[in-house]
Amino acid sequence: MRLDGARRDGRLAHGLLFSGPRGIGKRHLVELLARSLLCGTPTAEGLACGRCADCALIAAESHPDLLRVGPDPEAKSDEIPIAAIRALVERGALTPSRAAWKVTVVDPADHLNAAAANALLKTLEEPPGAALIVLVTEQPGRLPATIRSRCRQIRIPTPRPADALTWLTGRIPAKDAALRLCLAHGGPLRALEELDEDLLRQRRERFDGFLAIARGERDPVVEAAAWNGLGARLCLDWLAGWMVDLVRLAASEHPIHLDNPDLRDALSGLARRLEPASAHRLLQRVLRARALVETRANPQLLLESLSIEWLRVGAGQAPGRS
Ligand SMILES: [Zn+2]
Fold this sequence. Notes:
Elements: H1 2-8, E1 15-19, H2 26-38, H3 53-59, E2 66-69, H4 82-89, E3 102-106, H5 114-125, E4 131-137, H6 145-150, E5 152-155, H7 161-169, H8 174-183, H9 188-193, H10 197-214, H11 220-230, H12 232-251, H13 264-273, H14 276-292, H15 300-314
Parallel strand pairs: 1-4, 1-5, 2-3, 3-4
The chain binds zinc ion.
């Protein structure tokens, strides 16, 4: 790990920004780094020993020099408020009490609200000597440019598909591994942790609902409520994947890649009926909605407008005017 060299030479920046797609191991890496910095007797490879008092405190989630800042799970908003950052800066909270470093992990950093980001910026500009602030995000572009420029940026790439698949087949049945990796957009940890049996069943049910709307057998508003109940972000992700595949299948009978290889037959049947321009337009709307959904307190209306549009598009009708 290059960071390890930087740390040993005393060149570690005070602000680190870890970014990359979901489910590829960013947080695991941040955790390894934090542990190795706080461990009293790190191994020759620079990793935490797992046996000293500091390692024990970390394992018990009570190490005084490891702080975690995130949205308040009790609060209605999923923003990180300014109070969370103020608490860091005041009372010398960034001075280590027993280890060589004080490590603060801000995750997901793109949830910092504007005031909190500003307060953090001041800290990043004049950090106390032994403070390390680690920001973790899937969407670095949503952080203010001023914050990004004060941090050393570490982009964690999606692993090569063959490597990810090898890793994954060591942990789940081989017959599921390729599909789950595909649905996780190549993120092996996401494939392992998020795409369990239950979620795959729910995806199948929502896909059945999607097909039923196109046949005129399901009320799109009812289906949109089911999407909302399951989580708008997740359902928009699925919807985007189905629409992308439909557009691909409308353009070529044998596209090289599908996001949903297991649904090829049903999607091919649908793609033959669709009016390509309408399908493409709906796909654009779904992608815009997916970008917007994070900022919506109640995305129900957004989802309904898409499911109603799909009723028209799925029935093979020409573009509407909405
Ligand atoms: Zn240790």
